[in-house]
């Protein structure tokens, strides 16, 4: 989709975007995304759906955002335009903590990743606690949000693993490690909460002092195992970064359990399941190859 077409589409819905400011990201499976500034100087996010079913799924995300915006201690998108041909909202404060360069597939950072500021861990933990404490299952189920019960968590992961195993070769040692994890009850959480579901650096907004200011892209949000929101942090900042985040999380009143850290490490170990599932949804060859390589290799 050309920038001129997105500019015209925004104008149709009352937003006068300056063409020279418009940047297009067409890598998404469900939406083409434009970032541009209007004639009044306001920066906008413009999401153009690729298919009608993408809009239907977005209705759930819209209800979620409207419900959490007053409860989460971070900014969330406030959709001004919600139409079958365009979703638009003012850009949140700050910038993504890290943005993936499409050419190198590596992060371009807004924070010092060699010496991550304490402010980043503390403000991220504070926002995560406020999110995870939201757990009114009946309310979210009514809104169309996926709700998983505690007793379903390990069995749900088991089904996902077995489905991937039908398609891919999985190294026996890796498979055995996963089965041990699934069968060790104390590894799994005794509670659930509302998770963002895809809380990596690209979806975490920060200010110039590395304070977390907001979360974007809530398409994976649901009631489930809250450790999901720690996995990307561990995979990006290592064990020391995870320890700092967990310490801050507990200080702000976040619920944990004895083997939560071990559980997060196992979630990261099984991340190739997520990659394989994404490969199936997207039909992207590079992700299928990535999943194949990781799954058939022995665990570290």
Give an overview in words.
The chain has helices at residues 3-12, 52-68, 118-132, 137-142, 153-165, 172-183, 228-251, 260-269, 271-282, 285-296, and strands spanning 23-25, 31-37, 43-49, 81-83, 86-90, 95-96, 98-100, 107-109, 193-195, 204-206, 212-215, 222-224. The chain is an alpha+beta fold. The protein folds into two domains: 3-90, 2-Layer Sandwich (Phosphorylase Kinase, domain 1); 98-296, Aminoglycoside 3'-phosphotransferase, Chain: A, domain 2, CATH 3.90.1200. Helix 3 crosses helix 7 (228-251), helix 7 packs antiparallel against helix 8 (260-269) and helix 9 packs antiparallel against helix 10. The protein is globular. The protein starts with a helix and ends with a helix. The mean pLDDT is 94.
Detail the topology: elements first, then pairings:
Blueprint: H1 3-12, E1 23-25, E2 31-37, E3 43-49, H2 52-68, E4 81-83, E5 86-90, E6 95-96, E7 98-100, E8 107-109, H3 118-132, H4 137-142, H5 153-165, H6 172-183, E9 193-195, E10 204-206, E11 212-215, E12 222-224, H7 228-251, H8 260-269, H9 271-282, H10 285-296
Helix pairs in contact: 3-7, 7-8, 9-10
Question: What keyword list fits this structure?
Answer:
300 residues, alpha+beta, Phosphorylase Kinase, domain 1, Aminoglycoside 3'-phosphotransferase, Chain: A, domain 2, 5-stranded antiparallel beta sheet, 3-stranded antiparallel beta sheet, 10 helices, transferase, Kinase-like_dom_sf, transferase activity, AGP_Transferase
